[in-house]
Specification:
Layout lengths: L4 H4 L6 H9 L9 H12 L4 H7 L1 E4 L5 H7 L3 E4 L13 H15 L12 E4 L17 H7 L2 H16 L5 E2 L23 H17 L5 E5 L13 E2 L3 H8 L3 H6 L4 E4 L3 E2 L2 E2 L4 H11 L5 E3 L17 H6 L4 E2 L4 H14 L4 H17 L8 H5 L9 H14 L1 E5 L11 E5 L6 H5 L22 H12 L2 E3 L12 E7 L21 H7 L6 E6 L7 H5 L3 E6 L6 H7 L19 E2 L15 E3 L29 E5 L7 E6 L2 E5 L4 E3 L5 E6 L7 E7 L6 E6 L7 H5 L3 E10 L6 E5 L5 E5 L1 H5 L6 E7 H6 L9 E7 L2 E12 L6 E3 L11
Parallel strand pairs: 1-2, 1-11, 2-3, 3-4, 5-7, 6-8, 7-10, 13-14, 13-15, 15-16, 16-17, 30-33
Antiparallel strand pairs: 8-9, 12-17, 18-19, 20-32, 21-22, 21-26, 23-24, 24-25, 25-32, 26-31, 27-30, 27-32, 28-29, 28-31
Helix pairs in contact: 3-15, 4-14, 4-15, 5-6, 7-17, 8-9, 8-17, 17-22, 19-22
């Protein structure tokens, strides 16, 4: 194999080590920690300040080219959720390998002044290799917590590592060892359990299995991410240090004992101070008390959340103990700033040496320095991606994760020879059953065709029943004279990730209860509810309306595993017993009765609860009265992503309804495009760019399949509020519309309002609902609450759209038509 140029410059006193590391055909990692450290120290001594700091920088593949690596010698790249080689969602395994090879070859090229040190590529493979089409997607962590089997979870970790290795990637940002305490947190499904001991029992085995495959593991997020006040993502965890480490640090001890090589810092604060800038936690506790010897990587632009810092400028984070900074887009200015800060004395070069030594040591320990082209190890593993062996493992995990909460009259398992009506949004929706972090970051914008080897729950139901001579009806009327044995309703949360999943109450669908209305249509029949969710929720009404109720969590790509447990064998025997047990208590209330800022503590079902099919328990009627009402009747339409029932579209007369995917979209004539940008956090805003010639309008809008009634909101002075930033003022007329199922609509000319705004500055604007109502919108049936169109050139950024009861903190615009100006 080719010797790395970085290794070739090691001193003669280490010549034997050079032969071992640089030119040997043995590609296994170093067995002795001291050997790796000696090699890392020798290499460190040869590096310039700029080369050292290059090793501390991690950029995102959409913003880093191989030429950038060749010139600046970055230590790492990552692919964020929804980022693919060439920006192509359907990128093949070969595409991933080609890019990995290109990065590697560029990183060892010293022709432009870099040190020639191999780059390490990291990815969020958090429930399988979830960014890659065709990969096996396992149940999210909360489901694996319900399975209660550390050996199963370790096997999944190893399988995921093999699929990641097959694409040429070196490093996985997992396992997550968060201990979720408040289920309103949008990352609850990333937690195995609310019990620190359960999390601890999984961590070590996962690390060992992953790193045994030659993949660098990461425990994250250090520390306290699952304990924030009110369950707010990136919020404040308010605990004494000993309690913080005992409860939220439980997973780190076994992971460190297992040799985990990296730790990712957490976005949250601890008692008011951001962890990314907290030296006591990142250095004194993590390294001193817990004995961690690898390197600490920041989260996505995490250093920018420290007071006084920016995404590309934060000496405090480096001095606190961050060794590698994840700066996806602004990596070059981050590199330049770090160099300047060392030269000015804000950061000592000794601290830089410490960080780089840790990074180099991991590169030696993991075998990266002597591994060669990623494709040489990846291509032999291509068959592992989505392999039958891995799919069987995932299907087994699905079966074992299911928790039976209710089974009146021993309804389950079902007779496969029966006739069943299958209803609900989640029945034939692999994207919904897989949740967030699925192909895209938020898990949105996916169709069943994006899972070429996956199976929906409906696929499994149909397969089981067809073999026994029964019949499943879905999306078709039940023929007259056919008696349905039961209704199987599959419903629950639609995909989300991180902050976009935060909620203020555990009440499911309050006050609309769409799923309850679906169940109520079939109250004369037995109903089996299969609830898809990333957390326990207050669903007492739905449980009461069901004969049997199954918590299926987010099972991933092998949805057919649900049917293996829901149905008996054709001879009447049980195929697979319900083995899942609640990893977190199931709530009996929507909010905390004494203080709604605190987590719900009232339990309908305790942690560890779960029925077997033979249990004869008849569940008592559960309380259906909520303790609290929604904090407001405001309806978020867009906040980081389309919320609730709303979906983002763009179009013109060539195609009026082009769904905007996770990375945006473009009209067929390229006269309107939507792309993803960052405002306050990752991908929380959209850039909308019109390039029209003035001849035909193109429009961007949010729409729901089922119209909503906002008459009361309009009557009390409600408005549509939007956060926008003008990049280029409109050349032609701009219209804003609110539809009540086309052609019913109300349209306003907002051109002059927009032209009066300062560019490159965020503005919060509000337009009264009464303005739209006065020009034709029926507020009792709104399906498009926000639509902007223009035929000309115009560019704006959009961060939030909300229907509000009362305008506060926004510039309330006059109704922009003469006919209704008197309303304001």
């Amino acid at each position: 194999m080719r010797c790395s140029s970085a290794l070739a410059i090691l001193t003669l006193s280490l010549s034997s080590l050079v032969l071992l590391l640089g030119c040997s055909n043995d590609q296994s990692p170093l067995s002795a920690n001291s050997e790796a450290e000696q090699a890392a120290k020798a290499l460190l001594e040869t590096l310039s300040l700029e080369q050292k700091i290059g090793q501390m920088i991690q950029g995102e593949i959409a913003h880093v080219t191989p030429d950038d690596l060749r010139k600046y010698g970055l230590g790492s790249v990552l692919n964020g959720g929804g980022s693919f080689p060439g920006g192509e969602k359907g990128a093949s395994i070969e595409d991933w390998l080609t890019l990995a090879d290109d990065y590697y070859q560029a990183s060892i090229d010293t022709s432009q002044g870099s040190a020639g040190i191999p780059v390490i590529w990291g990815t969020d493979a958090v429930h399988g290799h979830n960014n890659v089409i065709g990969a096996t997607l396992f149940p999210h962590n909360i489901g694996l917590g319900a399975a209660g089997d550390p050996a199963l979870v370790a096997a999944i970790s190893g399988a995921t590592a093999r699929e990641v290795k097959a694409t040429g990637i070196d490093w996985i940002f997992a396992p997550t060892v968060a201990v979720a305490q408040d289920y309103r947190w949008g990352r609850t499904y990333e937690s195995y359990s609310s019990d620190p001991q359960v999390v601890s029992s999984y961590a070590g085995g996962m690390v060992e299995a992953m790193q045994a495959e030659g993949i660098v593991a990461t425990t994250k997020h250090f520390v306290g991410d699952g304990g924030t006040f009110s369950g707010v993502d990136r919020g404040d965890t308010r605990l004494p240090l000993n309690v913080l480490i005992e409860e939220h640090g439980a997973g780190y001890k076994p992971a460190i004992a297992a040799g985990v090589q990296t730790v990712m810092a957490s976005f949250n604060s601890w008692n008011g101070e951001k962890v990314h800038g907290n030296k006591q936690l990142l250095t004194d506790v993590l390294r001193g008390d817990l004995g961690f010897g690898g390197f600490v990587v920041s989260d996505w632009n995490g250093i920018g959340e420290i007071e006084g810092c920016a995404d590309d400028n934060c000496p405090q984070a480096i001095n606190a103990g961050i060794d590698m900074v994840m700066v996806p887009e602004d990596w070059l200015s981050a590199l330049e700033n770090l160099v300047a800060q060392v030269q000015s004395g804000e950061i000592s070069e000794a601290r830089i040496d410490e960080a780089v030594l840790r990074i180099l040591k991991v590169k030696f320990e993991s075998g990266l320095m002597q591994r060669g082209l990623p494709s040489t190890q990846g291509r032999p593993l291509r068959s592992q991606v989505g392999s039958q062996e891995h799919r069987d493992l995932a299907r087994d995990a699905v079966r074992r994760s299911l928790v039976l909460l209710k089974n009146d009259d021993q309804m389950l398992p079902l007779d496969p020879a029966g006739h069943y009506l299958v209803v609900g949004e989640g029945a034939d929706n692999i994207g919904m059953q897989s949740g967030g972090w699925t192909i895209s970051w938020q898990g949105t914008g996916n169709a069943n065709s994006d899972f070429p080897t996956g199976t929906s729950l409906l696929d499994g139901f149909a397969e089981q029943v067809a073999k026994a001579g029964g019949k499943v009806y879905h999306g078709e009327p039940v023929p007259e004279g056919i008696e349905v044995d039961a209704v199987i309703a599959v419903y629950g949360e639609t995909p989300y990730a991180e902050t976009q999943g935060d909620i203020t109450s555990l009440a499911w669908q309050q006050p609309n209860f769409e799923d309850l209305a679906l169940l109520n249509q079939y109250q004369d029949l037995p109903i089996v509810s299969v609830f898809l969710s990333g957390r326990p929720l207050w669903v007492n009404r739905e449980i009461n309306a069901s004969t049997a109720f199954v918590a299926a969590w987010l099972p991933g790509s092998e949805g057919a595993g649900v049917a293996d447990v829901l149905f008996r064998n054709s001879d009447g025997s049980v195929q697979h017993e319900f083995e899942g047990r609640l990893p977190m208590a199931w709530p009996s209330a929507d909010i905390n009765g004494s203080d709604r800022d605190l987590a719900v503590v009232d339990e309908a079902f305790a942690r560890g609860y779960g029925l077997t099919s033979s249990a004869s328990q008849h569940l008592a009627f559960l309380n259906e009265e909520p303790r609290g009402k929604p904090l407001s009747l405001d309806r978020p339409v867009f906040a980081g992503g389309a919320r609730g029932q709303w979906r983002l579209y763009l179009g013109n007369r060539l195609d009026w309804a082009i769904a905007s995917g996770p990375r945006g979209g473009t009209t067929k004539d390229n006269q309107l495009s939507v792309s993803v940008i960052d405002r306050r956090m990752q991908e929380d805003a959209r850039r909308v760019e019109w390039t029209g010639d003035g001849k035909r309008s193109s429009q961007v809008y949010f729409r729901a399949d089922v119209p909503i009634n906002i008459e009361s909101m309009s009557a009390t002075g409600g408005a549509v509020v939007m956060d926008i930033r003008l990049i280029q003022k409109p050349v032609e007329q701009v219209k804003m519309r609110m539809d009540c199922t086309w052609p019913c609509n109300g349209e306003l000319d907002i051109t002059q309002h927009l032209r009066s705004l300062e560019t490159d500055v965020w503005h919060r604007l509000a337009i009264s609902l009464a303005c739209f109502e006065a020009v034709g919108t029926n507020m009792g049936a709104v399906d498009v609450p926000f639509l902007i169109s223009t035929p000309g050139v115009f560019t704006m950024d959009l961060a939030e759209v909300t229907l509000v009861e009362e305008v506060s903190g926004a510039n309330l615009l006059n109704c922009p038509t003469q006919e209704v100006a008197s309303l304001k």
